[in-house]
Structure formats: structure tokens, C-alpha cells
Amino acid sequence: MSSKVIQAMYNDDDILMDAVKEVRAAHYHIEEVYTPFPVHGLDKAMGLKGTRIAITAFMYGCVGFSFAVWMMNYMMIEQWPQDIGGKPSFSFFLNMPAFVPIMFELSVFFAAHLMVITFYMRSRLWPFKEAENPDPRTTDDMFVMEVAVDGNESDLVSFLEKTGTVEIKVTEKH
Amino acid sequence: MYTFSSKLKTFSFALMILGLIGVAYGFLSTPSSVEDVKVMLQNSHDSHGEVAANHDVDTHVVEADAHGAEQTESAHSDDTHAEHAFHYLKNKPWSALYVALFFFFMISLGALAFYAIQHAAQAGWSVVLFRVMEGITAYLPVGAILLFVFFVLSSLHMNHLFVWMDPEVVAHDELIQNKAGYLNVPFFLIRAAIYMAGWVWYRQHSRKLTLAQDNATDISNYTKLFKRSAAFLVFFLVTESMMSWDWIMSLDPHWYSTLFGWYVFASMIVSAITTIALVSIYLKGKGYLEFVNNSHLHDLAKFMFGFSIFWTYLWFSQFMLIWYADIPEEVTYFVSRFNEYKIPFLGMLVLNFVFPLLVLMNSDFKRVNWFIVCTGIVILIGHYIDIYVMVMPATVGDQWFIGISEISSVLLVLGIFIYVVFTALSKAPLLAKGNPFIKESEQFHY
């Protein structure tokens, strides 16, 4: 099996969407699509699965909440239950309203930051990471669809030429 | 066009009749004198144990002989206790009716505010739901009349809900005397009339304009409605705040809270959006709203979720600030609620916050009708309890009980509400087709 990919370039997101649907209907495999901005509905057209990042965020929030409850209970109730301004430090629930702002903030803090870090890790983003776009124009006004070559290369090229592409490049897979 | 099904009509009449019987029973079963209450209290003591009964008999004997300061003291406190309980029990059916009347009035007022916000914000998604909202706000004039009659009856001393209306109480209460410039009966009724007139006027006017827009060739009605809605929102914000002082906060004339108006508003708007969602789902289930898709319901469910959290935020802000500073004159409000109303006071947090938080967090669940219906019913019950806990501690104190009076008051007003709302829905086409955003709204998807 060759490791060649065809990069079909488009200059309009509507044409790109139609092309993605045609290529999928013809059962070619789309490796990747590069766009300068989010194209609404592209993930659905490509048949990508929904993200689960919201679920991770919920779990991180639960972790943050539990951490806050444990921390406040340990410090204010168990470790050194002082009388501070008459606040009832006999049990966690008697003094709970005073802890709620911290419980809330830590839930949000954990949920937000850990979700962002999860996003960076899953999408492999970090400082000094080498950029992966195949053509610098994809960050400006070009849309690139990469289709894996599997079988007859010239058939695929002529098929893609009919989908409204402005340029076609055949390259080795990086 | 929607036709009011005879089944639903019969159901609403059944609710009204059942409610009316229950309310009448509630009024007839109040004790007629302090002596009755004493007998009742004694009976309940008897059922608790014979020791208490013996104690009562002893103190009565001693009281007759006028011997021993200590015993007469306790007998005297028995008397005042019975008198308090008597006033509370007399108030109970009135308060139950008041909570139900206010609750449904608040739903329709909240729907009106939401409707005005949609117009002023030029929202594109909600246009297909405008007729549903207009149907719900049709209860507003009816509810306003009922509430106003209730206030007039209160000011005629038919009941004892607003203690500042009682000249004898005011005569012995310097705190209320100092507020008499605001809290006096004529001014109270004039204010209520002004609020209600303003709200009902906007409601009738906006209805007239949207109906005129349906067959209009230009959008002059629409632009007029846009401006009126923006003006109404300004008026609403001021009057809603004052309404909450007048109608709810003045039940506890010794207590005040600055964010109370917002708190009542949060309760109002979340109940209203829930009701809009429930009515929409009902009508869609009957096949009358084929242009409403599950993205519209998703948006309503998001509003239910968001405003539930907003309500909790205000509830907690009010509670925590007072709990934290613990100033005696403010904290009594929550002390009485914590001591005598623990289950409804804390239970409504579960119904109004924890349940919607966990159920409506998931995006997929917000598109499933029966999830919205279940959460909606829980939210409405929760906000009924919210109003209940705002009103009852001031009027019936420790004599509260969710019994025949309370349930049948809700049934009575619910019956009127259903009858009025669905009659109004059958009066006009369910699609406001003249609105310039109607195409966007029909194709709305999330």
C-alpha cells in the first residue's frame, strides 16, 4: 500500500462541505481537513464522533468539589477547630455556608483548567510543537482536504477535480 | 388554529369545583374561638401523653385559686399560645389561597417578562413560541383581578395576613409606625393597581399588535412592539421589585432584604419558562405545533437550567449574607424558617437546584420531552414551596401544614389557569406569521 495522499484545495467552505459529502459517498477515506476557521457542520459531514470533553469536565468538577470539601473539613473542623468570630466549627454542616464560595470556586477551577489541559493533550498542542499544516495558505483563505490514495491514483484525482477544487497536489504522507 | 379539547375543559372545571369545595372546607373548618383552639391543643396534648393533660388540669385549678406566681405564669403563656395559634389557624386558608393566587399570577407575569425580553432582544429562535407565551399571559388580567380582590378583602380586615394593616398592631409597634408612610392601606392598594394596570396594559397592547402584524403589509406594528417591549421592561423592573416588597416582604414588616426583588424575579422567570416548555410540549404532542422542533425545546430547557441556578445563587446570597453576619433583627427571618419549616425550606433546594442541575446538565437529555416534563413538574413544585416558605412563616407560623386548604387552593387556581390559558390559545393561530424573524425561527436548529 502506498503512503501517498492527495491534497485537494478549495477556496470556499460551502464547496468544501459538498466535496466532503461527495467523497464520503464515493467511499474514499478522508485523512484530514484543514480549515482557517471552524466550519459549522463539518464534523457531522465527515462523520466524526462527538467530543467527550464535557464529560471529563463534569468529572473534574466533582474532583474539585470533593477536594474543597475535604480541605475545608480537615483545616477548619478537624485539625484546629477554633472559634473565629462565633462561627460554629463543631461540624462541617453547621459551618457549611461559609465554605460554599470556596467549594464553588474550586469546582470551577478544577473543571476549567483540567479540561483545558485535557484538550491540549488530546489534540497534541504544546509550546515549541512543530506546526502540521500542509500548506501555509490553510491558515488564511484555503481549505485542504487530504484523501488517502488507495488503489487507482488517477481515478481519484479525476474524481476530486470534479468536486470544485482549485488545486490538487499529490504528496508523500508525512 | 387550536381547538380547546372538551376533555381538557372538563378537566379544568373538575379542578375548579374540587378546589372550590376544598377551599370552602378549609374556611369552614377554622376554629371559631380561642376556646376551641384550647380544646384542640389539649386534645393533641392528651394524645401525646397523660402527663401533659394532668399538668394542664393542675394549672387550671391553680389559676382559679390565683395561687403561686409560677403556675399562673405558665397558664398565662398557655393562653397567649392558644391565642397565637387561633390567629394562625384563622389565617391558614387565606394564606393557602394567597400562595396559590400569587404563584399562578407570578407564572403569567414571568412569561410576560420573558416575552418582552424576546421582543426587545430581537431573538430569532423564539418567534414560533410567541403565541404560547401570549396564551400563558392571558391569565394575567384574570389573576390581577383575583389578587386585587384579595388585597381589598385583606384591607377590610377579613383576614390577618398583613399585620401592618391592623391599626391596633401598628399602635403598639414603633417600627411599623416608622414605615407607615409607605405601608398604609390606601397607598398599598394604589400601588398594586398601578403595577397591575401597567402589566395588563402591556399584555393587551402587545397581543393586539402581534395579531395586527399577522395580516399587515409592513412591519410598523412590529417596530412599535419592539419599542413598547423595551419600555415595558424598564417599567417591569421597577414595579416587580416594589411588588415583591409590597406583596411578600411586607408580610414580615420588621424584616428587609435588598435583593429580595431579584430573588422573587428569579423564582418567577424559571417557573414561567418551565410552564412555557410544558404547554409547548403538550400542544406539540397534540400535533398543533409542527413548526416547533426539539432545538426550541432544548433552548427552553437551557433557560430552565440556567435560571434554576440563578435562583439558587440569589437564594444563597440572601441566606449566606444574613447567616454570616448574624444580626439579630435580620436573622429572625431565617431562624423561624429553620426551626419550623426545615423540610420545605431545605427540600426546595433539592427540587429547585440539585435535581435540575443533575438532570438538565446533559445536552441530550434537554431534547427528550419526558425529561423536560419531569424536571418541569419538579421545578414548579419547588417554586410553589419557595413561595410557600416566603409567605407562611409570617402568617401561620408553626401551624403550617400542606393539607386540604393548600392543595385545593392550588387545584382551584390551576383549573382557572388552564381554562383561561387554553381558551386564549384557541383564539388565534399558533404561528405569529407576520413577524420578520419567523423564517429564522422555523428553521432554527441548535
UniProtKB/TrEMBL annotation, chain A:
Keywords: Membrane, Transmembrane, Transmembrane helix. The chain crosses the membrane at residues 53-72, 92-120. InterPro entries: ActD (IPR021776). Pfam families: ActD (PF11821). PANTHER family: LIPOPROTEIN-RELATED (PTHR40394), QUINOL:CYTOCHROME C OXIDOREDUCTASE MEMBRANE PROTEIN (PTHR40394:SF2). This is Quinol:cytochrome c oxidoreductase membrane protein. It comes from Lutibacter flavus.
Automatic annotation (TrEMBL), chain B:
Coiled coil: none annotated. The keyword Zinc-finger does not apply. Keywords: Membrane, Transmembrane, Transmembrane helix. It comes from the Bacteria. The chain crosses the membrane at residues 96-117, 138-162, 182-202, 230-248, 260-283, 303-323, 343-361, 368-388, 400-425. The keyword Signal does not apply. PANTHER family: PTHR43044, QUINOL:CYTOCHROME C OXIDOREDUCTASE QUINONE-BINDING SUBUNIT 2. This is Quinol:cytochrome c oxidoreductase quinone-binding subunit 2. It comes from Lutibacter flavus.
